[in-house]
Amino acid sequence: MGQSSSAEQVSPEQREAESIAASTGALPNLQKAFSVLSDPQTHSIPIHSLQKCFGFSIDGSTNEESVVPKEFPVLMSNLSSSIVDLFFLSEKGGISWVEFLKGYIKCSGRTVSSASLNSLLRLFGMISVKAGLPEKLQVVSDEDDCKISGFLLPADVQMLLSMCWIMWCDSIKLKASSSLGDSGLPDVTHLVLSAVDSCADADKKLDLWENSILDMDIQLPVAKIIMWALKTLPSLSDCFGKFVHARLFYLAAHEQEKLDQVDHFSHDISAKEMSVGHLLNSGRAWAISLTLRGTLSEEISKVCFPSAAEEVDDYLLYRSSLHGKGLNRFWSNIEGYNAPLLILISAHEANNDARRWIIGALIHQGLENHDTFYGTSGGLYSISPVFHVFTPSGKEKNFVYSHLHGTVKYEAHPKPVGLAFGGSFGNERIFVDEDFAKVIVRHHACDKTYHHGPLYPDQGFLPVEASIMDVEVLGLGGKRARDIQSSYKKREELFTEQRRKVDLKTFGNWEDSPEKMMMDMVSDPNRVRREDR
Question: Which residues are within 8 A (CB) of 48 and not within 5 positions of it... i.e. 6 or more apart?
Fold first, then answer.
């Protein structure tokens, strides 16, 4: 069962591997998984058993409307064998307890992100070769921190991202207590174009509005791809580690089912992509979740599955096409929600309706009616057609500005009414007017709060005033934050109703009221009156 008897002497190699596994809390479950997979006679895991543990079926087929190349199903059929061949060393047809532990540590152990990305690319390179695709990646060294050389085409990046999506979905389904539906393969075009935009040679003139990624014959150096992934999708490499971890832990938890039920998970690559909002589909939500870690990442990832989409009200706080445009309509739906918010804006430049783009802002707190910038943290996103993330720079803290009409009737220097992110007064990086009709996008030179970069392709140096098509706001605080908001709204409605009611008993007699005195003075201002003493 993965444990040496007291009579046997534990080797330093085994002691070190067990110590590393124990530091992550995974050792007990790994012992159970080894017990299920291993042969009692040889005390080792047959190779085919471990391959079956990591196996699954790909349903559906690719066609002209598919979001992946036709080679993708063949490529995925070699995933399980490639994982075992690359990370789990076998001896005499079996995998020992020590090699099993070391393989798990290579796949799911704590390591730097660059090393995890190297492992992911090595795996993709081996799968591609087994699928009969041209070899484009070469391993420079076989050390644990091996270096990768070579290049990938945009179609390869698309298949790599789709493979990561399937592994990520698989780990989510195994971890979930309830059954989740199949959300299909998402459209990752915005991520592929992001890689092309960041990794292609500077002398290449690319039209990111028109080009089809499957038709691009552009070599993207793997070193630049790694740098792009570390900057744009820092959690991408976790998809592989979570997949291996979830499969082995599921096997340990369902020990009585043995190995027969492990590979019953299938993925339908022809299923329709899920969408919670009009602007946020599963592919865009997944991309945003890969830029984050922790609870916030998990909340965003919940919208990628049908079960989450059935409870739209738990996430969607405001949609201009549904609730009406304008800052007042917007405020009435988000007021009282004191949790992280994801705000998406779809717009297009004047006289160019065909080139629509989507930008977003993530703030880590609820909105407040302030006449100054505020906030603790956040991020700006270029979402479509190209995905980029702009994290805080640390130089300023002008994360968000949200201001309604003030209660003072006259102000010498009134502050602008609207919604803004980054920049400063009069030079906001993103500014939405109070009617939600126009959005002004400025060059990043005016902004010291968020990192630099264009919010949409071909953004120039001059401010651009674009027409807003739709605005969406999603709450990422979970059910508790929504319940608190509901309580807040009920309390406000109660106060409003109380203010509307007039209690006549609180007024004195009409003969003694100031109103009657004023009426009498208007009717006969010359009438002599004696002051009552």
Answer: none
